[in-house]
Design brief:
The chain is α+β, with helices and mostly antiparallel strands. The chain has a domain at about 50-120: 2-Layer Sandwich (Alpha-Beta Plaits), CATH 3.30.70.1070. The chain is built from 4 helices and 4 strands. A 4-stranded antiparallel sheet has the order 2-3-1-4. A hairpin with a 2-residue loop joins strand 2 and strand 3.
């Protein structure tokens, strides 16, 4: 008797819960969500997103020298040489998340000192 009761309850519970599984297949694509996505894209276009690692900040000759040294050590990492009066900056990498930039910083710190992570944007 107890066995039948337990089996009956288990079967009823199983049938009730299986109806809830199908409700998760639907997505809500409401107007508010579309507005938020558009707002996020507008923000990213204006301010940028991601991170770079700055390996030098100073004179032009030393910046170019350090950039070439970095390119020899890490040929697959993109490098950027920027001039913001009166200093030159050498920034490397294009990372989407801070975690990726931190991992790269650890790798680069073996050969270069005074590295800092720079968020991209205005």
């Amino acid at each position: 008797m107890k066995f039948r009761l337990i089996c009956g309850l288990f079967l009823a519970l199983f049938l009730c819960s299986s109806g809830n599984l199908y409700s998760q297949n639907q997505t809500n694509s409401s107007v508010e969500i579309k507005k938020l996505i558009a707002k996020k894209r507008e923000f990213n276009a204006e301010y940028g997103y991601g991170f770079r690692i700055q390996i030098f900040y100073g004179s032009e000759t030393k910046a170019r020298s350090l950039r070439n040294k970095f390119r020899l050590s890490f040929p697959n990492v993109p490098t950027n040489l920027k001039y913001e009066q009166p200093y030159w900056k050498v920034q490397v990498g294009d990372y989407k998340t801070r975690l990726e930039a931190d991992k790269a910083l650890l790798k680069f710190s073996e050969k270069f000192a005074s590295l800092i992570i720079i968020p991209l944007g205005k």
